[in-house]
Write a structure and sequence with these properties.
The chain is of the alpha/beta class. The protein folds into two domains: about 180 residues, NAD(P)-binding Rossmann-like Domain (Rossmann fold, 3-Layer(aba) Sandwich), CATH 3.40.50.720; about 170 residues, Rossmann fold, CATH 3.40.50.720. It is built from twelve helices and 15 strands. An eight-stranded mixed sheet has the order 3-2-1-4-5-6-14-15, with helices on both faces. The chain starts with 8 loop residues before the first strand and ends in a 9-residue tail after the last helix. Bound molecules: nicotinamide-adenine-dinucleotide (NAD). Nicotinamide-adenine-dinucleotide binds next to helix 5, helix 6 and strand 8.
Length: about 375
């Protein structure tokens, strides 16, 4: 239960970023918060894109707001999915709590605007627990699973692919899938590809991880990741999936143009790591409207916000992991919430006009202050 009879107003604005259909709070979560004595204000149509109409929020006891600004005005705690856009900067105020994906290292204007707002900004992506980033993982899980669905679809001849069915059929060998990186998205890609009956090889550099993959991914092969291993695999691969991550850095460029020429025309390359620059020198970000392009006869799929395609699943997966933090922030307020959920501390990027996140400070050359408590 709550520490005292503190009542918080939690605001859920509709996402205004193009193509963003996710919503930050499910009606069932709104119900839980209201039951605990809080007030939830949801902007009209905020959940529609993810399949949660206003009526479901109303039935949960939430107040529906007609305007975007109205939600910001009333809320003590704003929960969102994507970072605020420029029209939202003036809506934030001193002392307000903002909990959302921020990715500030990639956006100096946003960093400065949030510092000026005086709001306390907690970034989903930097909440850290046991050296893991629990609020990022579900999106990698979705992107990993989706990479095989997209790859299999684009391998069809009418989509300009090679014409290979990943699972093969009796009497015909299955397609070959190479997954570069055996972390969260890589494992999920491998699981989907194995489920289809494809021949799967996972390239990794972390030996402990490879031991884990070897035990858990029974039919997939693991191979130490190097240029030599890639050169050996490229001529026969049908679907290649880029799922590497070096924390805090741009994705390593593991594939160059010359290597692409070794692949057969119509091979599909899904570069999940595109949000960190991509792992091929030819990768560049694409959108769901125009997801693919060809380089050296290899089809590249480089959509930077893959989970947006499955907004309902992505909303459920995201809110599964954010809810307990939202509840703790609402029940206890920031300072006490940090004691109850220490993982939140690393999530604080900005407080009281000061930047508190070292990697963001490093990225922009802005002075970093310690947390005030
Ligand atoms: N495009 C999208 O919509 C989308 C969605 C979610 C995540 N992502 C991105 O996908 C990437 C992977 O995320 P993740 O959560 O799976 O990361 P992760 O940290 O769980 O896994 C990355 C793995 O790559 C391995 N690795 C590092 N260097 C390697 C190399 N040279 N060769 C082979 N393996 C190597 C690491 O050992 C690690 O196991 C990140 O850039 C993430 O931001 C993109």
């Amino acid at each position: 239960m709550m520490a005292d009879n503190r009542r918080m107003v939690i605001g859920v604005p509709k996402e205004i970023k193009e193509q963003e259909n996710r919503v930050a709070l499910l009606p069932s979560a709104a119900y839980q918060l209201i039951k605990r004595g809080h007030v939830v204000v949801v902007e009209q149509n905020a959940g529609v894109g993810a399949g949660y109409p206003d009526d479901e929020y109303r039935a949960a006891g939430a107040k529906l707001a007609t305007g975007h600004a109205e939600v910001f005005e009333q809320a003590d705690l704003i929960v969102k999915v994507k970072e605020p856009l420029s029209s939202e900067y003036p809506l934030l105020r001193q002392g307000q709590l903002l909990f959302t994906y921020l990715h500030l290292a990639a956006n100096r204007t946003l960093t400065e605007a949030l510092m000026q707002s005086g709001a306390t900004c907690i970034a989903y992506e930097s909440v850290e627990m046991n050296r893991r980033l629990p609020l990022l993982e579900p999106m990698s899980e979705i992107a990993g699973r989706m990479s095989v669905i997209m790859g299999g679809y684009f391998l069809a001849k009418h989509n300009q692919g090679k014409g290979v069915l990943l699972g093969g059929v009796p009497g015909v060998l299955p397609g070959k899938v190479v997954v570069i990186g055996g972390g969260t998205s890589g494992v999920n890609a491998a699981r989907m590809a194995m489920g289809l009956g494809a021949d799967v090889t996972i390239l990794e550099v972390d030996l402990e991880r490879m031991r884990f993959l070897d035990i858990t991914m029974h039919t997939a092969h693991t191979l130490y990741s190097s240029e030599a291993s890639l050169l050996e695999l490229l001529p026969s691969v049908d679907l290649m999936i880029g799922a590497v991550l070096v924390p805090g850095a741009r994705a390593p460029k593991l594939i160059n143009r010359e290597m692409l020429r070794m692949m057969k025309p119509g091979t599909v390359f899904v570069d999940i790591a595109i949000d960190q620059g991509g792992c091929a020198e030819t990768s560049r970000p694409t959108t769901h409207q125009a997801p693919t392009f060809f380089e050296e006869g290899v089809m590249h799929y480089c959509v930077a916000n893959m989970p947006g395609a499955y907004a309902r699943t992505a909303t459920q997966a995201l809110t599964n992991v954010t809810y307990r933090f939202i509840e703790t922030l609402a029940d206890y307020g920031l300072q006490e919430a940090l004691q109850k959920q220490p993982a939140l501390a690393k999530g604080i990027n900005i407080i009281d006009g000061k930047l508190t996140c070292a990697p963001v400070g490093e990225a922009h050359g802005i002075e970093v202050s310690p947390l005030p408590f």
